[in-house]
Design a protein that fits this description.
About 40% of the residues lie in helices and about 20% in strands. Strand 6 and strand 7 form a beta hairpin. Strands 3-2-1-4-5-7-6 form a 7-stranded mixed beta sheet, with helices on both faces. With about 220 residues, the protein is α/β, with parallel strands linked by helices.
Length: about 220
């Protein structure tokens, strides 16, 4: 499970106890995910608590999630949506998503979740081609980092004015600070951070939550 950067384990535990409010269904799915070797891919409870708050603040009804993994963040966001809300859960792996599906059903939010098993770039472009530009309230990006800039540009087209784009793993375990790390993934994240900072079509903040999370509101 991701942990907020530069804080002690005891303070992180305090944040979980006093700053998050998981449902029993979400907690069970988190514990089930923690049994898997790739559990570090799961968004942390404090990250998903932030997503829940943001969704409620903007009265979101239509959401896209890029990178689902076990569906823990999917479940938490679906719980925050109204009964008529919908979240398009985009991933290339149906296998990992199977972990979360029983918990989605148990929490009675599965009718809000629309799994889309396909490359997310293709899915986002399809939404644009179908005339859905400007019709989404929040887009959460937590997938392959090398495609983040492309995801961002497509998300800007799909999000409504005053809607939110949220991007995870903006620190890459502090690798973004290592000037000797010129890997494709790290370079892409650095370039994305610079792009967002210079983008006058959004108001943004980069927060030390989890592995670094960027929140952008589309202003134009």
């Amino acid at each position: 499970m991701g942990q907020t950067a530069s804080i002690s384990a005891s303070l992180h535990q305090y944040i979980l106890e006093r700053g998050t409010s998981e449902s029993s269904h979400a907690q069970k799915l988190r514990h089930a995910t923690e049994q898997h070797e790739m559990m570090r891919m799961m968004s942390s409870p404090e990250q998903t608590q932030l997503l829940v708050l943001l969704l409620q603040l903007i009265a979101a009804k239509r959401v896209i999630e890029i990178g689902v993994y076990s569906g823990y963040s999917t479940l938490r966001m679906a719980e925050a949506l109204p009964d008529t809300g919908e979240i398009f859960a985009c991933d290339i792996s149906e296998e990992w998503m199977q972990i979360g599906k029983p918990f989605w059903q148990e929490a009675q939010v599965n009718h809000k979740i629309i799994p889309v098993i396909a490359p997310a770039l293709d899915t986002l472009q399809r939404f644009i081609d179908e005339g859905q530009a400007g019709l989404f309230d929040l887009i959460y990006i937590d997938a392959d980092k090398s495609n983040n800039i492309a995801y961002y540009h497509l998300a800007l087209q799909l999000i409504r004015s005053k809607g939110l784009i949220v991007i995870d793993n903006m620190f890459l375990g502090q690798r973004v600070l290592n000037l000797h790390d010129d890997s494709t993934e790290t370079t892409a994240v650095r370039e994305l951070a610079a792009l967002i900072h210079a983008d006058r079509s959004v108001t943004s903040v980069l927060l030390p939550v989890g592995d670094g999370i960027s929140v952008m509101m589309k202003t134009s």
